[in-house]
Design brief:
4-stranded mixed β-sheet, 18 strands, 17% strand, binds pyridoxal-5'-phosphate
């Protein structure tokens, strides 16, 4: 069966043939690959093609596919049962592993997806602040809960309009949209008097890679303190990716609540929100903010998370090494683009890397939207033909994993030079 045939079959029974929209390759054209297996740094499709994988399941696979330590931990856990619906020690162990790295986070609650983590954190922040209004930044993605599927309204208004059918306008109006890396736009939102929380990707990875500046993030901290609002750092992508302790490890700024996902599950469905005890103790059964999950803290997911984080802590200089690989890629991109006169911007944070076909540095979503998406699509498809699997959208982040070899990176560099010559 070819990828094309598999996609046609899937489309008959699964909406759009995929269970998450970006997988459909809609913004680059072509068909999605149907994956047979992953191994180390490689993905294999059902046609027998092999690709160097820079998507890595959108972040979780920091040690690559089929990491032995994680797979062994999962196999062991499976033998004891898939789910208990009752507490187990693995939950406490993973909680300790996460919280131990963050002096400002006292308690944690595990859930099964990043969407659940941010949705729950927002509810908690609203419960704590007793205010309905939230500030969200254009271009930041926090999963698909109603309050967060909101985009900037037209014109000067900062009130949000829904970016999805089915989100009540009465709910969307409480989501105030600000501009990333622009504190004055946040101050504007606070003038409404209803803002109880600010949620931000401190290192934005869902409009392409756009890090928040130190001034911006520390300014958010000050504004939230001044107005008694809860600051939520959504580190579902950047946590254990940008550095061992995500954004916090790079700039030391302490949010009131932090959400995690992706890497903390090591490839299994696991996410979490954590924060100061004073706020977290408002969650049920201790407090009045309700949140629950049948498979939350699932023993198999916990085992994967424990193995993944333990391996992260025990691997000497892991993030320095990953950062070197990522920087090798962005340096290659930059140099090759310069040679060929292609306008390109690049960014690296730890094991995260990104690039924009853009004349100017990208500081926010509006800048990102000025990128040449046609050129991106051509680049992505041509790299794919040469065996390099990059995220199928200009507005996504790529990753490196421990398994990426210098040999693969050098082959990729050759491919980049070839493709840039053709663009
Ligand atoms: C991926 C992501 C989410 C959503 O996580 P899911 O597990 O896909 O629901 C939320 N926030 C950020 C920053 C993400 O990158």
């Amino acid at each position: 069966m070819t990828n094309k045939e598999a996609f046609e079959e899937a489309k008959k029974v699964i909406v759009g043939g995929v269970n998450s929209p970006v997988r459909a390759f809609g913004s680059v054209g072509g068909e999605p690959l149907f994956i047979k297996k992953g191994r180390g740094e490689f993905l294999y499709d059902i046609e027998g093609n092999k690709f160097v994988d820079f998507v890595l399941s959108w972040g979780p696979l920091i040690f690559g596919h089929c990491d032995k330590t994680i797979s062994t931990a999962v196999s062991k856990a499976i033998k004891k049962g898939l789910s208990f619906g009752a507490p187990c020690n693995a939950e406490t162990e993973l909680a300790q592993l996460v919280l131990g790295e963050f002096p400002h986070l006292d308690k944690i609650r595990f859930v099964s997806s990043g969407t659940e983590a941010t949705m729950s954190a927002i509810r908690l922040a609203r419960g704590f602040s007793k205010k309905d209004g939230i500030v969200k930044f254009a271009g930041c993605y926090h999963g698909h809960s109603d309050s967060l599927l909101v985009k900037a309204g037209s014109g000067a208004t900062t009130f949000g309009t829904s970016s999805s059918l089915g989100v009540p306008a009465d709910l969307a109006k409480h989501t105030h949209i600000a501009t990333y890396n622009d504190l004055s736009s946040v101050e504007e939102c606070f003038k409404s008097g209803e803002i109880g929380c600010v949620i931000v990707e401190p290192i934005a990875g869902n409009m392409g890679l756009v890090p928040g500046t130190q001034i911006f993030l520390s300014g958010l901290r000050k504004l939230c303190d001044k107005h008694g609002a809860v600051l939520i750092f959504d580190e579902v992508m950047s946590g254990f990716r940008a550095s061992k302790t995500g954004s916090y490890g790079l700039n030391g700024i302490k949010a009131d609540l932090v959400t995690f996902g992706k890497v903390i599950g090591g490839g299994m469905p696991c996410a979490a929100y954590a924060g100061r005890a004073e706020i977290m103790d408002l969650v049920s059964p201790v407090g009045g903010v309700y949140q629950a999950g049948t498979l939350s803290g699932n023993p198999v997911a916990m085992a994967a998370g424990i193995a993944c984080l333990t391996k992260i802590y025990q691997t000497p200089n892991l993030f320095e090494k990953l950062n070197k690989k990522a920087t090798f890629i962005t340096d290659t991109l930059k140099e090759s683009a310069k040679e060929k006169g292609i306008a390109l911007q690049t960014e690296v944070r730890g094991s995260m890397w990104g690039f924009f076909f853009n004349k100017k540095p990208v500081k926010n979503y509006e800048d990102a939207l000025k990128s040449d998406t046609k050129m991106f699509a051509a680049f992505q498809q041509k790299m794919l033909k040469r065996g390099f699997y990059l995220a199928p959208s200009q507005f996504e982040t790529c990753f490196v994993c421990k398994k990426h070899s210098q040999k693969s990176l050098e082959k990729m560099a050759d491919a980049v030079r070839e493709v840039f010559a053709e663009l």
